[in-house]
Automatic annotation (TrEMBL):
Its EC number is 2.4.99.28. This is Probable peptidoglycan glycosyltransferase FtsW. InterPro entries: FtsW, FtsW/RodA, SpoVE. Pathway: Cell wall biogenesis; peptidoglycan biosynthesis. Peptidoglycan polymerase that is essential for cell division. It is an enzyme of class 2 (transferase). One of its GO terms (cellular component) is cell division site. It is a multi-pass membrane protein. It catalyses: [GlcNAc-(1->4)-Mur2Ac(oyl-L-Ala-gamma-D-Glu-L-Lys-D-Ala-D-Ala)](n)-di-trans,octa-cis-undecaprenyl diphosphate + beta-D-GlcNAc-(1->4)-Mur2Ac(oyl-L-Ala-gamma-D-Glu-L-Lys-D-Ala-D-Ala)-di-trans,octa-cis-undecaprenyl diphosphate = [GlcNAc-(1->4)-Mur2Ac(oyl-L-Ala-gamma-D-Glu-L-Lys-D-Ala-D-Ala)](n+1)-di-trans,octa-cis-undecaprenyl diphosphate + di-trans,octa-cis-undecaprenyl diphosphate + H(+). Belongs to the SEDS family. FtsW subfamily. Pfam families: FTSW_RODA_SPOVE. It comes from Caldisalinibacter kiritimatiensis. It is found in: Cell membrane.
């Protein structure tokens, strides 16, 4: 066990800046809906600010919580995440906007799929670190990995949340690639994953409509293409410098829940191209520092855990921005650290806390 050093300062500051921008943009984009539906324009701001503070405490806690302990606790964490996923089918499960993906804790709601993201990454990296000599084996490497990914993604798919499941699946496959699994085995997993997504789309007609809307959103501007078109209007009207903070037009009930799945569009509208580039640069700093940490850590578990966390942040950020810019079919994926959502914010800030703890055991430039 190496001597602990200072945490990666650049990673910490970039994360805090993203959370700060998120709190501001959640307030700006949610004010109309909060005012007219909740009779309190500060409703979403207060909740996001509260979870931002709790998330900061959580991040600092995990920054000082030795990441090696997760290797011993991985199975318990994974089983707990599975149990949480099935709680949505009990009386504790609540339905919001036609989807039953939340658990009612009384004082707030909790989204178990967000916990499953981090829990499955911890468990898969722990498994691969223990079986590093058998990663290339079909029977002892590929099949157990398929089971872990199948259970992780399946626990989310049963909540009818295909986009989150696909995001997690891509992140877990990235871990397998980094761990050194045979390319043929990864190709097999990719084929199985693609087939699974295609089957899920076939079972739910509304998902097929989203693909149709992506191909020509302006043709269906009054129906299935509405969200995408309004998002493009927001980005286009923002120009280089934006309309100004708080001056978005699309947040006035043109884009549904603009503070969540389409918050990047409001950033583009109010802060312009400059604001979008700033957010992207901050994400690139987080990704770059995370990659540096994964490369420089001597421990295989730490390397794979860091790589898994970075993969999740990267994949989810890319999908969110791609959806908002109509570069892929629309789907409900929040922007890490920025979009409204207490569970998502807590999980991602906890993940960065783990990443910061791993950085304390590496020999790299922390400036």
């Amino acid at each position: 066990m190496s001597k602990r050093r200072a945490s990666d300062f650049s990673l910490m500051i970039a994360t805090i800046l993203l959370v700060f921008i998120g709190i501001i943009m959640v307030f700006s984009s949610s004010y109309p809906e909060a005012y007219y539906k909740m009779n309190d324009g500060y409703y979403f701001l207060k909740k996001q600010l509260l979870f931002g503070i709790i998330g900061l405490i959580t991040m600092f806690f995990f920054m000082n919580f030795s990441y090696w302990r997760f290797k011993k606790l991985s199975k318990i964490i994974f089983l707990a995440c599975i149990a949480l996923s099935f709680l949505i089918f009990t009386p504790l499960g609540v339905e919001i906007n036609g989807a039953k993906r939340w658990i009612n804790l009384g004082f707030t709601t909790f989204q178990p799929s967000e916990a499953m993201k981090l829990g499955s990454i911890i468990y898969l990296t722990s498994f691969l670190a223990r079986k590093k000599e058998k990663i290339k084996s079909f029977k002892k490497g590929l099949l157990p990995s398929l089971v872990i990914i199948g259970i992780s993604c399946g626990a989310i798919v049963i909540q009818k949340d295909l986009s989150t499941s696909a995001t997690l699946g891509l992140s877990l496959m990235a871990i397998l690639f980094i761990a050194g699994m045979r390319k043929l085995h990864i190709a097999i997993m990719g084929i199985l994953g693609t087939a699974g997504v295609a089957f899920a789309i076939y079972l739910e007609p509304f998902r097929l409509k989203r693909i149709i809307a992506f191909l020509d959103p302006f043709k269906y501007i009054d129906t299935i293409g509405w969200q995408v078109v309004q998002s493009l209007y927001a980005l286009g009207s923002g120009g280089v410098f934006g309309l100004g903070l708080g001056k978005s037009r699309q947040k006035f009930f043109y884009i549904p829940e603009p503070y969540n799945d389409f918050i990047f569009a409001i950033i583009g509208e109010e802060l312009g191209f400059i604001g979008c580039v700033t957010v992207i640069i901050l994400f690139l700093i987080v990704i770059w520092r995370g990659i540096r940490i994964a490369i420089n850590i001597d421990d295989l578990f730490g390397c794979l855990l860091a790589a898994g966390i970075v993969s999740l942040i990267t994949v989810q950020a890319i999908i969110h921005i791609a959806v908002v810019t109509s570069s892929m079919p629309p789907t409900g994926i929040p922007l890490p650290f920025v979009s409204y959502g207490g569970t998502s914010l807590l999980v991602f800030m906890s993940a960065v806390g783990i990443l910061l703890n791993i950085s304390r055991h590496t020999d790299l430039d922390r400036s």
